[in-house]
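Lecture 7 notes. Example A: sequence first, then its structure tokens.
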Amino acid sequence: QEQLVESGGGLVQPGGSLRLSCVVSGFTLDYYAVGWFRQAPGKEREGVSCISINDGITYYADSVKGRFTISKDVAANTVYLQLNNLKPEDTAVYYCAREHIALVQLESQCFQARTFSSWGQGTQVTVSS
């Protein structure tokens, strides 16, 4: 059974950092793209970052460029999202999702929730003083 499990969320002050993890099981990361999304209360799910596992190509939403970093550890079947210089507007539930790379050929597809067919349950990130 395929599964994605996020962890690492929490409460942090503005300017602080967190590292989110997305551990996958039931399949290997090769030939997949993994995306991180977030959803704040009353808002639509927003694409944050995306990585192509085989070639390591990464994409970031403008709102997080220079602050967030996506990375992978294929041996550990894990994708990370490092969140630095956090702002209150980063508060949301963060989700990871995966899709076969053949179905994620355009950068724009990385930021569309409908591109991805498998999702984790999410981890809450709250940025507040």
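Example B, a different protein, same format:
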Amino acid sequence: QVRLVESGGGLVQAGGSLRLSCAASGSIDSINTMGWYRQGPGKERELVARINSEGSTNYADSVKGRFTISRDNAKNTYLQMNSLKLDDTGVYYCRALDILWRPYWGQGTQVTVSS
């Protein structure tokens, strides 16, 4: 089992920055890919960014050039969000996939971008 706890969300003005953190615990050696997803008001949950065990990354087109995903040796993952826009508002979830491709989700952290 893998447990994920997100932190770092909050209220920020458009154009500002936030850094989200996801702390992993439990069977962290089994983690392969980690990612960030978000769900905006009235929207479906969508992929924001992900990073695999080799460090390869993928980003949603809407955040390319503004967001950066990273991870450390302890399998924690981070999402640096710059130049935030109103459309970035939502609940951000951390997800881990283990070597058997089983997903684990955090409880989410709210990000609100104001004008």
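Note on Example B: Residues 34 and 96 are 4 Å apart (CA to CA). The radius of gyration is 13 Å.
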